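Recall that a protein's primary structure is simply its ordered list of amino acids. Everything else, from secondary elements to tertiary packing, is in principle encoded there. The following example makes that idea concrete.
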Amino acid sequence: MGLRTSVVVSGINNLSDARYCAGMGVDIIVFNLKLDSPERVSSEALKEITGWVSGVKLGGQFERAKPDVINQYAEDFNLDYIQLDTPYLIDEIEEISRPVILKVFINKDTVESELLEMMELYAPVVDTFLIYSNDFTTIDETNNKLLKSIAKAFPVFIGFGLQKENIGTILSKIKPKGIGLLGGNEIKPGLKDFDELQEILEEIED
């Protein structure tokens, strides 16, 4: 089984999501390791989950942790990638021992030239940018041009506005490196509603 584009799934905090994503051919699953998040994966749970999945790259999702703390997690749990959900200084990113996925927020006030300039500064120390928005819920004429511009200039995952109905158009028109999806909480241990993930992943199966 293969997918038509690269996929990173962030916010993983349970074995059900991790195994499902690995089985579907997702490239990277990113565990929520944000120190002050109520949905953060404990070290014990992370060790157990990573022992049950294979064939997929592992990432850790951080917000304000120092580079030495991040590097310790990467070493202890054999993480392949680090996802930063908040801006870090360039010299801090340079201290991180794994390739970095940097989350970049856009909204209706985003100025294209300023965004491209910022991404240009970070590009040498970042593996990929994950484009996210709390403002936009869909991808349409209000943000299509901006997304095309940044996807042409940099390796980006589109992480918002993705639906079964528009995913094909996004891949063909915007041409991102890949897409970013979100995991979620289990209803109860071992019981998971995969509807949202499943619809999109099945739509981009080869």
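Residues 43 and 200 are 30 Å apart (CA to CA). The radius of gyration is 16 Å.
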